[in-house]
Amino acid sequence: MNSDTFEVENFTLSASAEVPGVIHEIGLLAKHKVLIHILSYIHNTVLVQTLVREINKTVPDAKIVLLKHDDKQKTSVVVFTIDTDDAEHISDEVLKALYKDHSNKNLSIQEYRTELFKRYFTDHLTNLPNLYQLRKDLENCEQCGLILLKIDNFQTINNFYGFVVGDYVLEYVGKYLKKVLSPNQVYRLSGAEFAISLDENLGFYHLKSYLSDLYEKIKNIKVSYQETQIFVDFTLASSSDRINNNIFSKVSMALMYAKKKGVHFWIYEDKMHFEDEYRRNLQLSSIVREAVQNDKIIPYFQAIRDNKTKEVTKYECLARLIDMNGKILSPLLFIPIAKNIKIYNEVTKTIVNKSFAVFEKNEFEFSINLSIEDIMSSEIFNFILNKLKNSHAASRVTFELLESEAVQDFKRVDRFVSEVVRYGAKIAIDDFGSGYSNFSYITKIDADYIKIDGSLIENIDVDEASKVVVDTIVQFAKKLGIKTIAEYVHSSVVMDRVCELGIDYSQGFYIDEPSVKLNL
C-alpha cells in the first residue's frame, strides 16, 4: 500500500452544536473507503448518538467503531480513508498502514536516540569527543596514558576579543591538535582544556621526553582571525604512575600544579602526595563550614603597649576557629579555605560583631584586620558602616588593612577610608615592610598607624640591615605624622631596640600572647 492511499484526519468535539461542522468535513473525505473511530468516555450521550446518526446519513458506507477513552469532557473522531476495493477488509488494511507508520516512527525514534547518544559524547563546538567519552575510554583501557593540555591565555583572549573569537580559537585549536597529534585521539574537555590518550602508560623519563617534544610541536600556535593574529600557548600534564586508577584526577592535579608553578608541563608521581593536600583541604572545608554554622569563629585579643607610658592602651582582635574537638585553628589555616568556599564574608562579620560587643563594655582602643576582599565587598562595606553608625565604640576602632596584598583599585580603598573616618574610626597599614610594600602606598592611603612587619622586628637586635630599614620607615612615618607599631616584639632586647628607634607602640609575645579574654 502506498502512503498516499492512506490518510488520517482527527476532530475533537465538546458539544452537540459542533456536530454539523465535523460532519461537513467528513463528507468531503468520503471519496474513498472510510473507517471512523468515535472515542468517548460514555457512548450513550446525545453527542455520540447524534454523530453516529449524521455520519450514517452523510457517509452511509462508512464503517463506524465506538471506542472509549478517559477524557470526560471531549469526544474525538478519527477518520481513516483508504483507496482500496477490498471494502470487507478495510479494518485490516488500516491496521497494516498503522503498523507500518508505527514501525517507521520507531525507526525514526531509534535513529534520533542514536544521534542524541552520539551528541552526549561529542563536544558541539569542535566535534571532538568530550569528557564523557574520555572517561568511558579510560574505563575500557587499563594501560592507556593520558595527557591534559590547557590554553594558558584563553581567559585573556576571551575577555579582550569576545566569546565569538574565543569560540573560533577553540575550534581552530581543536582541528590543529587533531591534525598534528594523529593517530592519538584528541578530546575537548571543558573550557580551554583538551586531552589526548596514549596507547600505553609511559615511564617517567620516556614520558618526560614525549612531553618535551609535544610542547615544542604545539607551542606558539598562531590563530588568524580576520586581520588579527592570536598566539596560543599551552600547559601540559600527565602521569607516570603504573597504577592507572584515578588517572584523570591525578593528571588534573598535576596540571593545576604546573599552572601554579608556571612550568611548561608536570608529571604526576605517587610520591608527590597531591591527594593528601586535597584531602586536607576537603576536611578543612568541612571544619570551616561547621564552625561558621555553629558560631565557632571567635576573636582572640593581643595587647598593644604604648612605648612612652609603658601601658597597654590597645588590643588587636585576631580571628580563631574552634574545631569539633575543641582545637584552636590559626587564621593562616582556615581563612584561605573560607575564601575558596565563599563564606569568608561570614567570618569577617562574625569577628567584627564579637569584637565590638567586647569593647563596647570598656574604654580600650581595638583593631580589626580587613583584607582587600573585605574592602572591595559591597556587603562588608555596608555592614561595617552600619556597625559604626550604631556603636559608641566606633571612635575607638582601628581597621588594619593588610599591606601584603596587592591593591588594584585605590579609589575603592580611598572611599572605604573616607567613609569609616567620618565615624571616628582609624586606619592602620598592616605588615608594612613585606610583600608588596612600597612607600607610595602610604601616601595614597590616609593612615593613622603603620604596623612594621614582624620579619623586620624579629631580628632587629642582631641584623643591622633590618635595623636600617625599620629606622627609615619610622623617620618617614614621623614626617607624615603617622604613628608606628612594632610587631613580633619577643624579647627585652628587641623591646629596647624598638624604643631606641622611636617606635610609638609595641606588640608581641614579650608583652602579651593572644588570649580569648582581655588581660586587664
Description:
This protein is of the alpha/beta class. It has helices at residues 19-28, 46-58, 90-120, 131-139, 154-161, 163-180, 204-218, 247-261, 274-293, 331-340, 344-359, 372-376, 378-389, 410-421, 439-444, 454-457, 464-480, 492-500; strands at residues 6-13, 33-40, 63-68, 75-82, 145-151, 186-188, 193-198, 221-225, 228-232, 234-239, 265-268, 297-306, 312-322, 328-329, 365-370, 397-402, 426-432, 449-452, 483-486, 505-506. Strands 12-13-15-16-17-18-19-20 form an eight-stranded mixed barrel, surrounded by four helices. Strands 6-7-5-10-11 form a five-stranded mixed sheet, sandwiched between helices. Strands 1-4-2-3 form a four-stranded mixed sheet, sandwiched between helices. Helix 18 links the parallel strand 19 and strand 20. This is EAL domain-containing protein. One of its GO terms (molecular function) is cyclic-guanylate-specific phosphodiesterase activity. Residues 142-271 form the GGDEF domain. Residues 281-520 form the EAL domain.
Q: Short description, anyone?
A:
With 520 residues, the chain is of the alpha/beta class. It is built from 18 helices and 20 strands.
Give a short account of the largest sheet: 8 strands, mixed, barrel
Helix-and-strand structural type: alpha/beta
Strand order of the largest sheet: 12-13-15-16-17-18-19-20
CATH superfamily of the largest domain: EAL domain
In CATH terms, what is the fold-level topology of the largest domain? Answer: TIM Barrel
* Number of E strands: 20
The radius of gyration is 39 Å
How many helices? The count is: 18
Q: What general outline do the C-alpha atoms trace?
A: elongated
Tell me the distance between the termini.
Answer: 103 Å
CATH architecture assignment of the largest domain: Alpha-Beta Barrel
Percent helix among the residues?
40-55%
The pLDDT mean sits at: 86
Q: Indicate the low-confidence ranges by residue numbers.
A: none
Measured by DSSP, the beta-strand proportion falls in 15-25%
| CATH class (first level) name of the largest domain | Alpha Beta
Number of domain modules: 3
GO molecular function: cyclic-guanylate-specific phosphodiesterase activity
InterPro entries: Cyclic-di-GMP_PDE-like, EAL_dom, EAL_sf, GGDEF_dom, Nucleotide_cyclase, Rev_trsase/Diguanyl_cyclase
Protein name: EAL domain-containing protein
Domain GGDEF: 142-271
